[in-house]
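Before relying on records like the one below, remember that each one covers exactly one chain. Contacts with other chains, cofactors or solvent are not represented anywhere in the record.
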Amino acid sequence: MKKIEIKKGIYWVGGIDWNLRNFHGYLTQRGSTYNSYLIVDDKITLIDNVKASFAEEQIARISQIIDPAKIDYVIQNHIEMDHSGSLPKIMELCPNAKVIASVKGVENLPKHYKNNWDFMAVKAGDILDIGSRKLHFVPTPMVHWPDNMLTYCPDEKILFSNDSFGQHIASSERFDDEFPLNVIMTEAAKYYANIVLPYGKQVQKELKVAKTLEIDTICPSHGLILRKYIPQLIEKYIKWSANEVENKALIIYDTMWKSTEKIAHSIQEVFEIKGVHTRLFNLQYTHISDIMTEILTAKYICVGSPTLNNNILPTTAAFLTYLKGLAPKNRIGLAFGSYGWGGQSIDIIENHLKECKFEMLDQIKIQYIPDEKKLNEERKKLIEQI
């Protein structure tokens, strides 16, 4: 249970979840970390906690540095259970510590844990003097819960960034310059696409504040600590939060007897003719959270399903529900599919995409097995629209 010193007197004391593979519907093939940070100063301060099942791991790391009973302040930047689950055990060890959170955090932590600890609510501009260092608090509501906030230490130029800039990666390495950058960026994109995407406007406000701070280290709640590639990731956050898209089309579908799949490949041909990069995803084989990572930068979202029992296939329904919740903006949609007699699936898909506020291309609806003549007709129509 090795502690990691980030800067003199500031330590990573979190937990490593090597086995995590699903984070409320989002596949985490590389596991994750629950990052917690200990500052040893005149007032000993713990910033963020870990998932409850990793409490002993966290406490073991803290105990290598100090007696946990000596902790004076516990700053809870976010109350979600992967950030706060170990809080009750921590407070058993340091019952006289003050728990610091945003106004919403102080309101809701007792509802989570049914404990009346010594709480202190902080707001924008509040500063906590812990000795040789001062900690500044920046509320960031709805990135991605109402209680979220950041903690900034100007003396060390460290931003404790909560869910922002996080990645679900389990590793023995703690810093970005010790780990493959392409993996960090891929996992940061997936994290943003599956958790932060609906909150672009709030992220832009957060970035505006961050721009005013001197930062040489970012300590997120999940994944690698950033000290080398901060500008690169901030640049990505600027792009993602603005819903900037690339000339890329995703063709996402499920199929029963390959008819809808034939339409999918025909649509791909059109985008290739028009010079648009394409990716095909069969929902039987690709998880929706991996598709969302691609949607983060895709201009065209084409979704297809045959008609099943006057409806769409369950995989397509699950994807559309997930997509609507994450609310990507500035996209162009296309509904397509095959059918035998009713043909309701294509209208159902189109209505879902319209609810996402997508600009729509004309739907493609083909009865039974598509032949080349019909596919060619639909290709010509689509070429004129792109």
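The mean pLDDT is 96.
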